[in-house]
Design brief:
The protein is an alpha+beta fold. 37% of the residues lie in helices and 30% in strands. The chain contains twelve helices and 19 strands. Strands 1, 2, 8, 9, 10, 11, 17 and 18 form an eight-stranded mixed sheet that branches. It has an eight-stranded mixed sheet with strand order 6-5-13-14-15-12-16-19, sandwiched between helices. Strands 3-7-4 form a three-stranded antiparallel sheet. Helix 1 packs parallel to helix 8 and helix 9 packs antiparallel against helix 12. The model has no long low-confidence stretch (mean pLDDT 95).
Length: 398
């Protein structure tokens, strides 16, 4: 039976970052993924400042910067009037090496991290390799795998569950995943239309109130991502029809010709949290541990922050002889941040954009503009929304 120090289930951003950090510390690591190749999933598109700091330590940030859009501001906006609350990330220049958001597809990170993993000693990434069963004892985890060449078994001292929202590791360990699924379905439509040339003073990240409801416009190097919602009299199936997408985009910017739509994809939004980030020698990170609304771009970033925190502890345990109690500290540090910072802030962001009362929107816009006008409040808000304060909070927990 093959032996490794750490087995990682899931070769997304969380699993690959964890694998690279462990391998660079001299720890033999195997990353497996049931898909047959590196993930091409669109998914997240925003990298927050502290995440760029972390990825810089792996030599990934500069390549990400070359393929993404540096976004020094983001805004909440009223569509009809163009009134806005503009948040300027340059105020974080003393808190991070990267005082901006980077708009870049998640799949760029997985491609870059996978390429680096292929040339990193102590690290192997195997695709088309699915975890089907696991057994724990005092020596660690014995994992049963399904591969193209038949069943295999592998023994690892620790297993990192980075296998996402439908985590097999979570099911096999019997961990509960409490929370809710939001009622609405978000419809992602990407288009090559250049909104920045028509709508005044757009940022690369825009959360927008409009007469009909809400939408968001997130810019990437060659496309805009538009998050849209069903009209009150529409089913999700009807809202996904090309004519319905066209109608919603025409509301944003009316034009005589149709929009060039690259992709249409629906997704449900969840708010869920695992009870404990540790089940013996199995430790959870990313979407296997917490699911949140994408509003604010905290999901992938929070997962990478999990991976860095967890691998710091595994390195201390495996290389320096530290106590396994550090894995319980991992839960104490990261779970409250997920619950009270990531999930709570994303929920607030979502609820803010879902409110349709015009008087409330005007009052909220005034409140946000006043906050921005106060240098101290502006910075504190950005420390929170950029996830810097959550990392500081976690680091203070012993």
């Amino acid at each position: 039976m093959k032996q490794v120090a750490v087995l990682i289930c899931g070769a997304g951003p969380v699993g690959l970052v964890a694998g690279l950090r462990l391998a660079l510390a001299g720890i033999e690591t195997l990353v497996i993924d049931k898909e047959n190749q590196v993930s091409q999933d669109f998914r997240a598109s925003t990298f927050h400042p502290p995440t760029l700091d972390m990825l810089d330590e792996l030599g990934l940030t500069q390549d990400l910067l070359s393929e993404g859009l540096i976004s020094p501001t983001w805004q909440i906006r009223q569509h009809e009037s163009h009134d806005k609350a503009l948040f300027d990330l340059s105020v974080l220049k003393d808190d991070t090496r990267y005082p901006f958001r980077l708009q870049c597809e998640q799949r760029v990170l997985t491609r870059l991290a996978d390429a680096k993993a292929q040339n990193t000693p102590n690290l192997q990434v195997r695709y088309g390799c699915e975890l089907t069963h696991l057994v724990q004892d005092q020596s660690g985890v014995t994992a049963s795998l399904s591969t193209a060449n038949g069943p295999e078994q592998i023994h690892a001292r620790y297993l990192i569950a980075a296998d996402g929202a439908r985590s097999v590791c979570r099911k096999l360990t019997g961990m509960t995943f409490t929370g809710e699924t939001y009622p609405e379905t978000t419809i992602l439509a990407t288009t090559t239309f250049k909104f920045e040339g028509v709508l005044p003073e757009l940022s690369n990240v825009n959360y927008v109130w409009c007469k009909e409801g809400t939408f968001s416009l997130l810019r990437l190097p060659s496309i805009w991502r538009c998050s849209l919602y069903s009209d009150p009299d529409e089913t999700v199936e009807q809202a996904l029809e090309p004519a319905a997408i066209e109608r919603k985009l025409q509301r944003i910017v009316p034009r005589s010709e149709p929009y060039n739509i690259v992709e249409i994809r629906p997704y449900r939004i969840h708010r869920r949290l695992i009870d404990n980030y540790r089940a013996g020698s199995v430790v959870f990170a990313g979407d296997s541990a917490h699911l949140t609304s994408p509003s604010g771009g905290m999901g992938m970033n929070g997962g990478i922050h999990d991976a860095v925190n967890l691998t710091d502890k595994l390195i201390a345990i495996l290389r320096q002889g530290a106590s396994e109690d550090l894995l319980d500290q991992y839960t104490r540090q990261r779970r409250p941040v997920a619950e009270e910072e990531i999930l709570a802030q994303s929920h607030i962001n979502r609820m803010r954009m879902q409110r349709r009362d015009a008087a409330w929107r005007a009052e909220e816009m005034g409140r946000l503009q006043a906050l921005i006008a106060s240098p101290e409040q502006h910075r504190e808000h950005l420390l929170k929304s950029s996830m810097i304060s959550g990392l500081a909070r976690a680091a203070a927990v012993t």
